């Protein structure tokens, strides 16, 4: 068999960097060796290192800070288009520490939007939570959730600073369907303060309803700064 063509030197440098990231030697946020230091170590020119770093930065693997150095990028939490994930797991999977601040956990009157989604009268008192999820202390998502009375026993007795609402609902609920819609807003003054963003920062709003055998059981309104996370999904398509 013919021998494989040797990799170009910049590709060797990229493979070296990626290997250190994958094996945990260089976790997210790590300042990696400079171009001047890594060149002699690998026996390649600074120009070669520069090209490899530039391509890895373009791909979102590295992050360059002028006058400071090159760092392993912190990946944004990812939320599914057609799936529901535990936000704590998504945040920790990106190399950040999850924490949360419980803003409200009590029965509360249904606002019109949640009432329409659940098919209940506006103003009816239902279990409600409002929780700010953070990654390394930075706000990632403001989660407001309303539940049909009687669903997910013990919801109001949980400590959602230690575990997510998702984790409790997986244990106690029986959701069989989900629908969600995504829109963009500019935050008002109070929301901007809570999310620690300027009022000119676009935020995405995910409105999500879960169902059990066709009956709406939960409605959630999730607000997230657009530059701190991504939404992605993959689904099978019927043959064209």
TrEMBL record:
Boundaries of every HTH gntR-type domain copy: 7-75
InterPro entries the record matches: Bact_HTH_transcr_reg, Tscrpt_reg_HTH_GntR, UTRA
Keyword line: DNA-binding, Transcription, Transcription regulation
Pfam family, one: GntR
Name of the protein in its database record: UTRA domain-containing protein
Origin species: Falsiroseomonas tokyonensis
Lineage of the species this protein comes from: Bacteria, Pseudomonadati, Pseudomonadota, Alphaproteobacteria, Acetobacterales
